[in-house]
Structures are given as C-alpha cells and as structure tokens.
Specification:
- The protein is of the alpha+beta class and about 675 residues long.
- The protein folds into 4 domains: about 140 residues, Up-down Bundle (Glutathione S-transferase Yfyf (Class Pi), Chain A, domain 2); about 60 residues, no CATH class; about 160 residues, Neurolysin, domain 3 (Orthogonal Bundle); about 150 residues, Collagenase (Catalytic Domain), CATH 3.40.390.10.
- A 5-stranded mixed sheet has the order 3-4-5-9-6, with helices on both faces. Strands 1-2 form a two-stranded antiparallel sheet. Strands 7-8 form a two-stranded antiparallel ribbon.
- The longest helix is centred in the middle third of the chain and has 33 residues.
Length: about 675
C-alpha cells in the first residue's frame, strides 16, 4: 500500500519515498473531486455535504502535509522533483474548490436555513469562514477572471516553492575552512563541531557555514573582523544577484508582489494587504501601520541610546572606529559581558538538551495538568524524537515530533506545523499530532546538545504553538487547534510561553552545568535578568522595520512604477532603522516568511500578538506564575477553543477586558508615554 494513503494512524515516515508522491496525490485529488461533485448535489445540511467534503479534503491535506514537511526537513533532488511535480495539481484543486459556485451556494443555503441555528458555535464559525473564504477565493468572479485567478495561484505556489529552495541552495553553497590562526574567540563547542565538519569532508582545519549553529557564534564571538565580514556578506547576499543567477530571488520577489496585486484587483480590493487582513484581527493597512508607528515611537529613543553606546564602546574598547553590520553582534556581546559580567557562552553550559526539555515539559504539565512522556513513531531522521501528552486520567490528548538540529537538507528557522488535527470521527476522537522543528547545534564530543538562552526561548515559543494545536477541545476540523485562528493572533500562545523561560522558579529546575552538574546560580540568573532588555530598542525597531516593509510592499507599492522592493526597503530603513546595513545587503531575497510562507502583509502579527501575549502573561504575574488555576483558565479560554470564536473574544474571556499595550512596553523595559 502507498504509505501516503495510509490514514490508519501516524504518518509512515519510515516508508515514504519520492515515487509515492505522484500516485498518492493523483488518487486523493480524484477522490476529493468526486466528493465535491457529490456534495454539490446533496441537501444543504452539515451531515449531507459539509462532513463528506471535510473527510475527503482532510485526507488530501494530511498526505500533502507529509510531503511538504519532508520537503522542508529532508530535501533531496528526487523529493524536490516529486514535490514540484505535484504542487501545481494541489494548488489547482484548492483554487477550484474556492471558486466552486455550486458549493458556495450550498454554504449560503445552509447559512440561511432553519437548521443553521441548531449547529454548534464551532460549526457556525466554520460555515461563516467558508463563506468569507469563497469570496476571497474568487467564487464570485466571472468565468474568465476565475481562470486568471487560478493561473495566478498556481504560479504563486511555484514561485514560493522556488524562493524557498533558492534560499536553501544558496545557504548550502557557501562554506569556509580556516586554520587555527583565525579561530580566536570562537567557543570550544562550536570549534569542535566545525572541526568534525571539516574532518567529515577529509579536510584539515575548521569548517564554517551559513547555517545558524555555525554562522551565529562566528558573528558573536570571532575576534577576526575579516572572518565576520566574509560570513556576513555571504549571508546577507544569499539568493541575490551576487550569487548564481539561477538562485537569484530578485525577479521572483517582483513577480510575487505583482501577482498578489493582481489577485487583489480581481477580487475588488485596493491592494493585497486588504485581502490579507480580511481573516485577521487588524482591520486595515492604515491601522497596522499606525500600530507599528506607535511602537516605533516608543522604541526609537531606546534604540538611539543603544546604538550610541555600542558605537562608543566599539571605538574605545575594541578599536573599531566605524561600527559595521558585521561588528554589531560581536560588539554587543563584548559590551554585555562587560556590563553584566556574563556571556551567552557561559550561560549555554547550563542548558543541556535533556534538562531543558524536562523543564519545558514541567511548565506545561504544571499549568495544564497533563503528563508528557517519550513515545515511539516512524520518523524521517534518526535524531527525531516523539512524545505523548496525556491528561490526569491517563487518556491520550496529543502527540508531537521534535526535530531540533540543523542539517543541510532542512530549511532554516524554527516552526511548528500540524500533522493531524483533533476531530470527532463517529464515537471516537482523532488525536492531534504536531511537528516541532528547530535548527540548533547537535551534540558534539560525546556531550549533550547545549542551547543558548535564546534557543531556549525559541523552543518555548514553538512548543507554545504546539500546545495551541494539541490542547484544543474542539471536535470540528475547520476550527480545531490552530485552524481558523486569526493569523495575527496565532502567535499569542507561542510568545506567551517565552515568558516562562525568564522565571527563576522555572529556570532553576531546568538547568544543569554540562561538566559540573550544578544548577544555574541565582547570581548568574540575576545578571541575565538585568540584561534581558539589553538593546531591546534596537531589537524592536528591527522587527518593526521588517513589518513596515512587508505592509507597505503589499499596500502601496507598485512594481510597475520603476522602483524595486529593495528601494522600498531602503526607504523604510531611512525612516526607522538606527543602524543601517551596507548597500549590498539583500535581506528581502531571503525573507521567506513573506515570500515563501504565510506572512505576506502579516509580518506585523509578531508585534500585534506580542501585545496580546504580554498582557495575557500579566494575568499569571498577578495570580501566580505556575498557578494551575490560571493555567486552566488560559487553556479553557485561549488554547481549548481554537478558532471556534474570534480571538478578540477569546482574549476578553480570559483577561476580562480588551488588550493593552502597556505590558509589552513594560516587558521590553520601555517607559509608557
């Protein structure tokens, strides 16, 4: 049996091969189209047409989700070929579905029928979302415009996949092997990994790459300025005109933006940002830009102070007359180490993987009265781990994979994705399953993997997404877990979880020095806490810069006006940035969130949701950081309800009021007003 057609349990990652992709997807597309045809002739009731359609679409989505996941974490030429061959077919189907006038009419009939009132709130929300999505999917377009819309969606899917592949290929293409004379300042565990990487290729010396576990420590610790500059330039020019022409994303960016504008025009919107905001909490591009401008107003004085002191320190203490982009992380680390008398590398020794995971799980277990234990499942790589989540009575609540280490076959960054979504199937409940993916350093030299505190924060963040998906109580697919949650609210549970990694009562139980076995000293924690908002102004302005660029690119930018996206980014930087990168910086060419992910006209969501998450965490600060009663309320009102009601309503139900920005500014060390 084709493993992609086996839905009896967990994905069969031990058996899936590239040659399975085409036949499985073809069969599932045929079955889905048959279900669509049948549904259009069925009575306009939930059981007669919504449920059978949901079943067929879920099977297709689950199989394709496994293929897309493997494409992201175990890329290979055969798999890439199979993925790209099937991608247009899958894109075409979802476009057809969104434009099916007969189905649209069925949903309208259901929404206006007497039986609609008897549906659960979750099912009503699914119907309302479907009506909105049909309109956004072009169901009301004239036949000739439907064809144009479908062709655009297919091309956009191909371009996004190509964008991501170009970034991965350009990242993998660069490496540098250096001798001992250039190693000064680089931490020992990083050197050990670099030495092993060189030996693996039969080379003498130390090999460094653009993958985060190799790149970031060089930028932060390497004393040799030319080495930092080399790696910075290579990283900042990935997938641009400075590399292989076939990997240059410049033309793809222009084409993607133009196609998104065309979609907006077809649907009757002024710009793509308006389309993007339809299913989000924010209402207009102007509202988002005003929100970002307000945050920038608060952050700018702090960022200017941060930049001034960094330049002065670099000049006086490090003999760096002109602070350049490749000096910033290095000088920042030196300044922080001097001011607070500790370094990231010192802290890292207290965060071995097993202790960190135990502490992370303990937070969830305490707050939500669950138990997390290792389990077994077919996996795509030997380093992947699998876990069960059970309730107080021992019943299985959810399961998740953890793929924590960087490798050349895996795209960069960290992310959570759903493998299986909770839903009722007859008398049984389908167990939700999630993927948690990171790009951390793997164990070297017989020691466990060690995480920086920033990586611990990343792990808490992605686990928060996972809990949002896994602790849902909704039994209808369309709004269960993360499904149906507004995009600018989906980061609330993830950013909320990060706060716990700053609490002494959490950290003291999840640290152990890798050599000496001692827990993190309170004095070192106090230094970390004092340094928490070190250069938070610069960090906030950087995120606002990306968000403003994204929103303006999709709300006011005209690719036909002779300007490029890069020129727009420079204009945004002129207004917002305090530290400017060199002219050759091509950040947009690897901005996968916006051009190969789901964040187009949505990157602001990180800051928008951070307001929600900081304010939500304030409830725990008021009632007890690890108070199970507060945890139960957060689960009941935020996690458990999924997308079954508007996020603003869920927040008010939890907090008792609308969100306020003050908590975020306080957490960031910024004075209100």
């Amino acid at each position: 049996m084709n493993p992609l057609l086996d839905f009896s349990g967990l994905p069969c990652f031990d058996r899936i091969q590239p040659e399975h992709v085409g036949p499985a997807i073809d069969e599932l597309l045929a079955a889905a189209r048959a279900a669509v045809e049948s549904s259009t002739h069925a009575p306009a009731t939930w059981d007669a047409f919504v449920a059978p359609l949901e079943d067929a679409n879920e099977r297709l989505a689950r199989a394709w989700g496994q293929v897309a996941h493997l494409h992201a974490v175990m890329d290979s030429p055969p798999l890439r070929e199979a993925y790209n061959a099937a991608l247009p077919k899958v894109s075409q189907y979802w476009t057809e579905l969104g434009q099916n006038q007969a189905l649209f009419q069925k949903y309208k009939e259901l929404a206006s029928s007497e039986s609609f009132a008897s549906l659960s709130r979750a099912r009503k929300k699914i119907v309302e979302n479907a009506l909105r999505d049909f309109r956004l999917g072009g169901a009301e377009l004239a036949p000739e415009n439907k064809k144009i819309y479908a062709a655009i969606q297919e091309e956009l899917a191909k371009l996004s996949a190509k964008f991501s592949e170009n970034v991965l290929d350009a990242t993998n293409a660069f490496s540098i092997v250096i001798d001992q004379s250039r190693l000064s300042g680089i931490p020992e565990d990083v050197l050990q990994a670099a030495r092993e990487a060189a030996e693996k290729e039969g080379k003498a010396g130390w090999k460094f790459t653009l993958h985060a576990p190799s790149y970031l420590p060089v930028m932060q610790y390497a004393d040799e300025r030319t080495l930092r500059e080399t790696l910075y330039r290579e990283n900042a020019t990935r997938a641009s005109e400075f590399g292989k022409p076939e990997w240059d994303n410049t033309s793809l960016i222009a084409r993607i933006v133009a196609l998104r504008r065309e979609i907006a025009r077809l649907l009757g919107y002024a710009n793509f940002a308006e389309v993007s905001l339809e299913p989000k909490m924010a209402e207009t591009p102007a509202q988002v830009l005003a929100f970002l401008e307000d945050l920038a107003h608060h952050a700018r004085p702090f960022a200017e102070k941060d930049a001034a002191e960094l330049k002065e320190f670099a000049k006086n203490e490090l003999a760096i007359e002109n602070l350049e982009a490749w000096d910033v992380a290095y000088a920042s680390e030196k300044l922080r180490a001097k001011r607070y008398a500790f370094s990231d590398q010192e802290v890292k020794q207290y965060f071995p993987e097993d202790v960190v995971l135990g502490g992370l799980f303990r937070v969830a277990e305490t707050l939500y009265q669950v138990k997390i234990t290792p389990s077994r499942a077919p996996v795509w790589h030997g380093e992947v781990r699998f876990f069960d989540i059970r309730d107080a009575g021992g019943a299985l609540v959810g399961q998740f994979y953890m793929d924590l280490y960087a490798r050349e076959t895996k795209r960069g960054g960290a992310w959570m994705d759903d493998a299986i979504t909770r839903r009722r199937k007859g008398s049984s409940i389908q167990t939700p399953v999630a993927y948690l993916n990171c790009n951390f350093s793997r164990p070297v030299g017989g020691k466990p993997a060690l995480f920086t505190h920033d990586e611990v924060l990343t792990l808490f963040h992605e686990f928060g997404h996972g809990l949002h998906h896994l602790l849902t109580r909704i039994e209808d697919l369309g709004v269960s877990g993360i499904n149906g949650v507004e995009w600018d609210a989906v980061e609330l549970p993830s950013q909320f979880m990060e706060n716990f990694a700053w609490e002494w009562d959490v950290l003291r139980h999840m640290t152990r020095h890798v050599d000496m076995g001692a827990a993190l000293p309170r004095a070192l924690f106090d230094k970390m806490l004092a340094a928490k908002n070190f250069h938070s102004g610069l960090a906030m302005l950087r995120q606002i810069e990306f968000a403003v660029f994204d929103m303006r690119l999709h709300s006011e930018f005209d690719p036909d006006c002779g300007r490029s996206a890069r020129e727009l980014l420079e204009e945004v930087r002129e207004r917002i940035a305090v530290l400017r990168p060199p002219a050759y910086n091509r950040f947009a060419n690897s901005f996968s969130h916006v051009f190969a992910g789901g964040y187009a006209a949505g990157y602001y969501s990180y800051k928008w949701a951070e307001v929600l998450s900081a304010d939500a965490y304030g409830f725990f600060e008021e009632n007890g950081i690890l108070d199970p009663r507060a945890g139960a309320r957060f689960r009941d009102e935020i996690l458990a309800v999924g997308g079954s009601r508007p996020a603003a309503e869920s927040f008010r139900a939890f907090r008792g009021r609308a969100p306020r920005v003050e908590a975020l500014l306080r957490h960031s060390g910024m004075i209100v007003g």
